[in-house]
Amino acid sequence: MLVGDPAHADDLVQDCLVRAISNLDRWQLGTNMRAWLFTIMRNVLFNNLRRARRSPFLDCGGDAMDTVPVAADQEQRMRVLDVDKAFTRLPSAHKEVFLLIAVEGLDYEEAAQILGVPVGTVKSRLSRARNDLRTSLDKSDKPQPQDADFAERIRRGA
User: Do residues 113 and 106 make contact, with C-beta atoms less than 8 angstroms apart?
Assistant: First the structure.
């Protein structure tokens, strides 16, 4: 999800469709309408985010973790939090590519068209995003020194 909140996602889609309908004369017959709409949506999102940075009263986001459904399993919840933390540390260009391909299911060519970059750039950004996520998640799987200290204090009854 691009914005992390269903209500904001609905607003984003509505803004995108309003802009698309008002600019329908700019769409070229025979081109990929889905890619055109994703480009508009991406531009609307960035405009909203820029506006939010300038105004302390406009809320364009929200905590994505508030809307992520997970089972009552604590380990799974911790894993979801680890994935969320790792994802938020990715550069925005890598997040965009990852969302378009891994979440939205677009192919490389569609993502490249939406982002306005060559297909090779999409492939390299996706590869880097996957590697960065894997590295971050591998680090979070290893016991941290503070975990051992905490476990020792529990054993001692402190």
Answer: no
